[in-house]
Amino acid sequence: METIEIVSIISAMKRQERSYLSKDYLHSFSDQTERHCQFEGASNPGRSVDEDLRLFMINWCYRVVAFFEFRRDTVAISMNYL
Q1: Is pTM, for the whole model, over 0.70?
Q2: pLDDT on residue 8
Q3: d(CA 7, CA 20)
Q4: Phi and psi of 10, rounded to 5°?
Q5: CB of 54 closer than 8 Å to CB of 60
Q6: Distances from the Cα of 28 to the Cαs of 14, 25, 53, 77, in angstroms?
Q7: By percentage, how much of the chain surpasses pLDDT 90?
Q8: Four-residue CA torsion sign, 43, 47, 51, 57
Q9: CA–CA distance from 15 to each of 8, 9, 18, 77 (Å)?
């Protein structure tokens, strides 16, 4: 592979990567979920997604996976989207 091809491929990958950046989707739903959230402090709209909240989400995902008898690596894949 030539240098020009490599640069072209990397440029295309970087453009594609920009479209995968996540947005602050949790903040937009804070009003709707405030009453339903069981995690202490998670309904605070000013709070960012920190380690404790991620752990809460991961544990919830594992409970869902166990209930539906999915493969456990489904959780790892889904957490990459967050």
Answers
A1: no
A2: 92
A3: 20
A4: -65, -40
A5: no
A6: 27, 5, 16, 23
A7: 24
A8: positive
A9: 11, 10, 5, 22
- Model confidence pLDDT, tens digit, residues 16-28: 887 766 666 666 6
Cα 18 versus chain centre, distance: 15
CA distance linking residue 41 with residue 37, whole number of Å: 9
SS3 82: coil
Residue of 53, 59, 58, 55 lying closest to 27 (CA atoms): 53
The answer to whether the beta carbons of residues 61 and 78 sit under 8 Å apart is yes
Q: How far apart are CA 54 and CA 58, in angstroms?
A: 6
- Residues for the chain: how many in total? 82
Structure tokens at 59: 């544990």
Q: What share of the chain is helix, strand, coil (3-state, %, to 5)?
A: 65, 0, 35
Question: Which helix (H) or strand (E) covers residue 20, if one does?
Answer: none
Token pair 């295309």 is found at: 12
